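Fold it.
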Amino acid sequence: MYIISRQESYTEKEIENFKKIIIDWCENFKKIFSSLSKTECSFPKLHSWKYHTVAAVRKYGVLNGLSTETYETLHKTYVKNPYQSSNRKNIMQQLIKAVKRKEITPVASKIIHRKTKGFGKILWNFNLDEIEQKVDLLKNSKNPPHSNLIEGLLQVIPALDTFLDTSSQSSECDDFCIIVYDAVHLDNGEILRTSGNFQGNEWFSNVSVSPAKDQVSESTDRIWYGKILLLLRLFQGLLKEPYDLAIVRWYDILLEESELYGCLHLYFFEEYNAIPLDLLSKKILPFIVCK
């Protein structure tokens, strides 16, 4: 029935056949589930499907043209989720910037993923389904890691969900594991670090990321700024190449005073993304963050 409902056109014979299939399906549905329902499956949607679907097809055309599924999904991805991550101030501007950041990865790189050589010391190695237990153990340990590393670990699952969805990769897999590193040497000679104690000081690299060529327009900002919380290599099964990624928390530019003492005046924004390191290796630029 589902396959027939998604057809792009119907003949009169197919419509009559569709009608019979719908009636049979609804009757079978009620026989199976009516004993479990207080209303005996007297649902408005079921009534509409059984008695009004074929009439709607004849009057308005195929059901694909009436479906709101695409727009509901887009609304969730590009409006509801960014709204929940915002601080509810200047909400329209925050939503627009969140969408821009989600679209950093160019279309071409959604198929190709390259490894970055030169990783530093391994901090942790675990399966993704163990991440909550790992965070709890680290928080309660005698020597807990820097709060930025904990924050990065807490954002791994939602950031990877967004990355895999944007990269057209399936996230429905039980065989995900990650290796977390403290540093990586990039092809352009830059070194990215995520260390709570590097020569007596904390060092979590600030980066600037330019949008992909297919995302640049006169109305978009040319550069996004962020702090790297985590450097990791993601493995999906045994036969696939790993992804080399950075978990980035974004900065935003303070509009009231965009520059202070000759440098950009930035503040943290409640938005996180997993960015491929091969993109950063081409587009990283040092900058000063004024607090």
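The first strand starts at residue 122 and ends at 127.
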